[in-house]
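Exercise 3.2. Students should predict the tertiary structure of the chain below and write it as structure tokens, then compare their answer with the key that follows.

Predict this chain's 3D structure.
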Amino acid sequence: MQKQWLMTLQRMPASGRSWDAVISADLLGDEQSGKVDAIPGLVSDVHWSASLQRSGDLFHLSGEWSTAIRRECCRCTAPFDWQVSSVMERDFQLGKADDTDARDTEADEGVCESLPAPGELDLLDVLREDIWLAWKADVVCSEACKGLCLGCGCNLNTEVCSCTRDDSDHPFAALRKLKLNG
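Answer key:
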């Protein structure tokens, strides 16, 4: 882990800290660094602009990030680069030096993560957590994706299917026989 992203909150200047940085995909994808799971499939570096402001023992992190991650479309199973971005808001609070476990406490505007003094914070782990929070289970390569043929399994975006559809055993097939006067 790069030391520039390790913060000791107790020693942070009153003016806070701001950054507009590009974080290497290799660094965020490195399984040997950090405590939070590495992000698989990053195809571009992460652009991260944020600020960390101090107010007594409370620290407010706000910012935004964007990147591209290699994913598989849930409709057609083709790989594609998923463009993802998010706005982040996190609050941290310094606890007492003898606090051995970090606890979440209710702050004025939501949950605040409590860190034992001196408040060691790995900002790359915070960024990884936020990327995982933005992760969607099902993503599509495009809204117009046609998916796979239910009969032969071909990708309907790239191939023409020659399957004949037989919906006679479909639960609503009997509705086709109704004569409706309109």
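Discussion points: Residues 3-134 form one domain. Residues 99-109 have pLDDT under 50 and may be disordered.
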